[in-house]
Every structure is written in C-alpha cells, then in structure tokens.
Amino acid sequence: MTNYGAIPTSSHSSPVMDPDSISRAKQRIKDGLAMSRPWRQMFDLHSMSFPHGVSDAFSRIKKNLSYFQTNYAIVVLVVIFFSLIKHPTSLIVLTVLVFVWIFLYFFRDEPIRLFRYQVDDHTVLVCLSVITIVLLFLTNVTLNLVGALLIGAVLVLIHAVVRKTEDLFLDEEAATGETIQG
C-alpha cells in the first residue's frame, strides 16, 4: 500500500539545516565564547607593566596569547567590524562569508556530498579560500581589511607584552580546585 502525498522520511537525504546540527552549532558557539576570560582580568591596571627584557616579552606574548586567545579574537573581529562600517556592502559580504565558513568548514560534522560524490576537507578549504579572496577583491576593501587586521594584531601584541602573566595560570589551578598541599 502506498501513501501518496505523504512526506517522505528517509535517512539518506538529510536537510541542510536539521535541528540537531543547529543545536550542535549553538553549543559550539557557547563553548567557544565560554573560553573567553573576564574583561576585567584582561584589563586589570595592576597587572600592567613593561617587560624586563626581550625574553620576558616573548614569554608574556606566548602565555597571554594562549590565555586570552578568545578575547583577542573578539578584539580583532571588532576592529574589522569598525573598519567596514563605512562599507556596508562589504560588511554584508563579510558577514555572509563568515557564516558560510562556519557552516561549511568549522561546524560540519559530516562530509559534504555533492551529486553523490563526497567532497573532502581540503577541497572545501581551497574553494572557500578562493571564493573569499575573489569576493574581497570585488568589494574593494582588501586594503581596508588588511589594515584592520594589522591594527588588531598590533593592539593584541601591545597588550600581550604589557600584561603580566604571574597571576594568570594560578587562577586556572584555583578554579579547578587543584591546590598543592604541603
């Protein structure tokens, strides 16, 4: 007996945006943002000083980049956003590109299938990179975007050099309850 007009249910063809993948994407975004450190801790004026030497500066950069990586990414993205406010078309294009990258490359759990062929990660990466570069050239904001990335990198490096690191990893141990008892 056939059911004409019934909605087909098949495990082979899954919709592009099923509820499970949306909830997984939301959870990954929440987990990623949960890794950000408190902004008060990042900009604590008592923890700012110049390094004692070049090796101290490199040590601070390494530790601060690791510890504040999510905060630094947010700072760079905000600088890019402000640099594109004068170019609303480019801002829209960049926003669309970010979502395309997120859903086709970063948050994808299963391989992409196109006309019954499986597309590997390398092909997706190359195609998305080419599309991103072409669209950036077409919107005429390439120099503006490169300038914003440089400004963001300089701001991050200045903070990473000036922010002392003595109190950073002690907070992580205290938060996990790992104390040394002697």
Automatic annotation (TrEMBL):
GO terms for cellular component: endoplasmic reticulum; membrane. InterPro entries: Prenylated_rab_accept_PRA1. Residues 1-14 have a biased composition (Polar residues). Keywords: Membrane, Transmembrane, Transmembrane helix, Transport. GO terms for biological process: vesicle-mediated transport. Its main location: membrane. It is found in: Endomembrane system; Membrane. The keyword Transmembrane applies. Residues 1-20 are annotated as: Disordered. The keyword Nucleotidyltransferase does not apply. Pfam families: PRA1. The chain crosses the membrane at residues 65-85, 91-107, 119-139, 145-162. It is a multi-pass membrane protein. Belongs to the PRA1 family. PANTHER family: PRA1 FAMILY PROTEIN, PRENYLATED RAB ACCEPTOR 1-RELATED. May be involved in both secretory and endocytic intracellular trafficking in the endosomal/prevacuolar compartments. This is PRA1 family protein.
